[in-house]
């Protein structure tokens, strides 16, 4: 009776084989689509991500420079120089 449970009916074996074939063909098509997509990306725009990376580096540098300017302009010495410059400009205009 155990051999009866282990054996698959002939119809089930055919269905299983067809399902395996379908799965294999689907896997092959997916692999081909993936390869085409990767090839298209490499050949059409090899440096597309480079512009984004350069933009990020420039933005970080600009932010750092702006922060440095804020620190310098808020220092007492520079603030005094700027106030003196504005006062002199206003007194000459009068």
3D architecture notes:
By secondary structure, the chain is mainly α. It contains 4 helices and no strands. The longest helix is centred in the N-terminal third of the chain and has 35 residues, at 10-44.
SSE order, as H and E? HHHH
Poorly predicted runs of 5 or more residues: none
Structural class: mainly alpha
Mean of all residue-level pLDDT scores: 79
Helix and strand arrangement:
Elements: H1 2-6, H2 10-44, H3 48-73, H4 76-93
Task: Please give a handful of descriptors for the protein shown.
mainly alpha; 4 helices; rod-shaped; 0% strand; 94 residues; 89% helix
What's the gist of this structure?
With 94 residues, the chain is mainly alpha-helical. 89% of the residues lie in helices and 0% in strands. The longest helix has 35 residues, at 10-44.
């Amino acid at each position: 009776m155990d051999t009866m449970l282990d054996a698959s009916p002939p119809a089930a074996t055919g269905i299983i084989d067809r399902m395996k074939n379908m799965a294999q063909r689907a896997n092959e098509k997916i692999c081909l689509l993936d390869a085409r997509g990767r090839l298209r990306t490499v050949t059409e725009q090899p440096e597309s991500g480079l512009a984004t990376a350069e933009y990020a580096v420039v933005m970080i540098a600009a932010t750092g420079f702006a922060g440095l300017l804020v620190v310098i302009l808020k220092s007492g010495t520079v603030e005094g120089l700027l106030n003196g410059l504005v006062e002199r400009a206003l007194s000459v205009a009068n």
